[in-house]
């Protein structure tokens, strides 16, 4: 069995992951609040229709925010999975090979599920 991270290192990564999770949750709340504010500001009291360019810009902004929120939710899922792996004692081990993921990679991508070689292979094949 490959050597596992000690309790001190696991706690270090857990704190990083929890901080990332809080940051993303804050970003999602902020986007939701902003979106709600945009919707309430749409009531045009002048009776004039919005210009097509304004409508297009609003649609683009909404789509962009939805895309960001989708990416954030995906990141949250990966963070949650990493926290579960910490609790199970499998954090830092490649899900495919079982080899230990180098700490340098975990510091760069704390929710990494795979060692770099496997991740690069998956990226080449277009696997997420």
- Architecture, according to CATH? Up-down Bundle
Helicity, as a percent range: 55-70%
The overall pLDDT average reads 83
Number of spatially distinct domains: 1
Q: What class do helices, strands and sheet pairing give? A: mainly alpha
- Return the CATH class: Mainly Alpha
Molecular structure report:
This protein has 128 residues and is mostly helical. The chain has a single domain, classed as Up-down Bundle (Four Helix Bundle (Hemerythrin (Met), subunit A)), CATH 1.20.120.910. It is 68% helix and 0% strand.
In short:
By secondary structure, the protein is mainly α. The protein has helices at residues 7-40, 52-88, 103-108, 116-125. It is built from 4 helices and no strands.
Describe the secondary-structure layout:
Blueprint: H1 7-40, H2 52-88, H3 103-108, H4 116-125
Helix pairs in contact: 1-2
Relevant terms:
128 residues, mainly alpha, Four Helix Bundle (Hemerythrin (Met), subunit A), 68% helix, 0% strand
């Amino acid at each position: 069995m490959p050597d596992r991270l000690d309790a001190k290192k696991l706690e270090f990564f857990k704190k990083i992951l929890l901080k990332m999770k809080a940051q993303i949750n804050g970003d999602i709340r902020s986007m939701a609040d902003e979106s709600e504010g945009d919707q309430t500001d749409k009531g045009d009291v002048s009776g004039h229709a919005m210009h097509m360019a304004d409508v297009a810009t609003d649609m683009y902004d909404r789509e962009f925010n939805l895309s960001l929120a989708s990416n954030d939710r995906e990141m949250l899922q990966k963070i949650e999975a990493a926290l579960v792996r910490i609790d199970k004692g499998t954090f830092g081990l490649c899900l495919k090979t079982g080899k230990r993921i180098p700490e340098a990679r975990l510091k760069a991508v704390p929710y990494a599920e795979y060692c770099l070689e496997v991740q690069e292979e998956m990226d080449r094949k277009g696997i997420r």
